[in-house]
What we know:
Layout: E1 5-9, H1 13-24, E2 28-32, H2 36-55, H3 61-69, E3 71-74, E4 85-88, H4 94-105, E5 114-116, H5 123-127, E6 136-141, E7 150-155, H6 161-173, E8 177-181, H7 189-205, H8 211-221, H9 228-235, H10 237-251, H11 260-267
Parallel strand pairs: 1-2, 1-4, 2-3, 4-5, 5-6, 7-8
Antiparallel strand pairs: 6-7
Helix pairs in contact: 1-2, 7-9, 7-10
Amino acid sequence: MEIKTIFVAGFGLMGRGISQTAAEHGFKVIAYDTGIDLLQKGTESIKVNLEKSVQKGKLDASQAEAIMQNIETTTDLSQAGNASFVIEAVTEDENIKHGLYKKLAEVLPDQIIIATNTSSIPITLLASFTDRPDRFIGMHFFNPVPVMKLVEIIRGLATSEQTYNITFDLAKALGKDPITCKDSPGFLVNRMLLPFINEAIYALMEGVGTPEDIDKGVKLGLNHPMGPLELADFVGLDTLLNVCEVMYKTFGNPKYAPSPLLRQMVAAGWLGRKSGRGFYVYNN
């Protein structure tokens, strides 16, 4: 099966990154979201990223323009029928995803694969909401998508071998280095990462250290490029809370229980970089 056009459902932070990456590797992209303003914001974000690459000498202006030409945006979900592969990157909420899959069933040809970029929700559960569980798979990218090489490929219980092979090959065609994970909440990376970040939030809540000292300790002591609280702000505290909730609900293990401070900050609207305030304050 030759994939030429990818339909990306959801043009938020991850959807933009996936769209840019696909366009950079020669794929035609149809990027979907529910509002013109969301599509315009996403398009401008990609343009800014490409302009930075031009300034750094990684691309020339003509290459950046060609990449933008590969991306079409739409609020018309029926355009998914013109693609040869679908990547869903909407909000990490199984009810929202369920509603999208029902609408996609009305417009997608039978042979088209749907890959979800979920970071925590079980693939078999999401596949049960579709009309094609054998052609449904997890394809979890990492932020920022154009930079991060890893993609987790997760099979649901009904995912066919053909679907897995096509998706794995597509990840490599997108310049990624994929790994295969069992269908377990949080998959591999988030299963290890979330308790680590959550423990850093507990340490802050208990006054063990300041945000600066916690992050500096991890960067210098563990040689991580970012501290856990910096990373939390980058990912989004609401996203972290959602993933923790899914893992705690599924495993019932208190090590996945979200810190009360994390809950408080999300309730206050302190979501990290995207809201201007999280564990740190961001002026831009």
